[in-house]
Design brief:
138 residues, 36% helix, alpha+beta, 6 strands
């Protein structure tokens, strides 16, 4: 395995876990502007810090956002996503952006679904080959 500076120590483990998240707006409405994306970046950074996670990369378009999050093994992805979407929806709604208020109603910013994909490290084929090459004790 490679020596990587992204490996983080935990109390009883070392880890390097990344997840790629995609959140889509309710009804796939195009409501995001650059200022909304910038506010979302700040909100997501703070929520990740509360989970001892790190927002590695973030960007989006007018109707969806992509996040790359480095997270500790004690955090479940579903609870992280729940907080990211819930807190961001409340905080963005408080700012009363006219483009969001006009196209979305009833307090929902996000679609209830999301995409989560594990990523980082070596490709699966390389890891499989590495494990297959281990010497099984006789």
């Amino acid at each position: 395995m490679q020596n990587n500076q992204d490996i983080r120590p935990g109390r009883h483990c070392v880890f390097n876990l990344h997840v790629h998240l995609v959140f889509v707006t309710k009804y796939r409405r195009g409501v995001f502007t650059q200022s909304v994306i910038d506010d979302l970046r700040d909100i997501f950074t703070q929520v990740c810090a509360d989970f001892e996670a790190e927002l590695v990369e973030f960007d989006g378009e007018d109707d969806h956002v992509h996040l790359l999050v480095n997270y500790p093994p004690k955090v479940s992805i579903s609870s992280l996503v729940n907080s990211l979407k819930g807190v961001s929806s409340r905080m963005i709604r408080k700012k009363d952006y006219p483009e969001i208020k006009k196209k979305l109603w009833r307090g929902a910013l996000w679609s209830p679904s999301y995409f989560a994909g594990s990523c980082g490290g070596a490709p699966i084929a390389i890891i499989r080959q590495y494990i297959e090459q281990q010497r099984t004790p006789k």
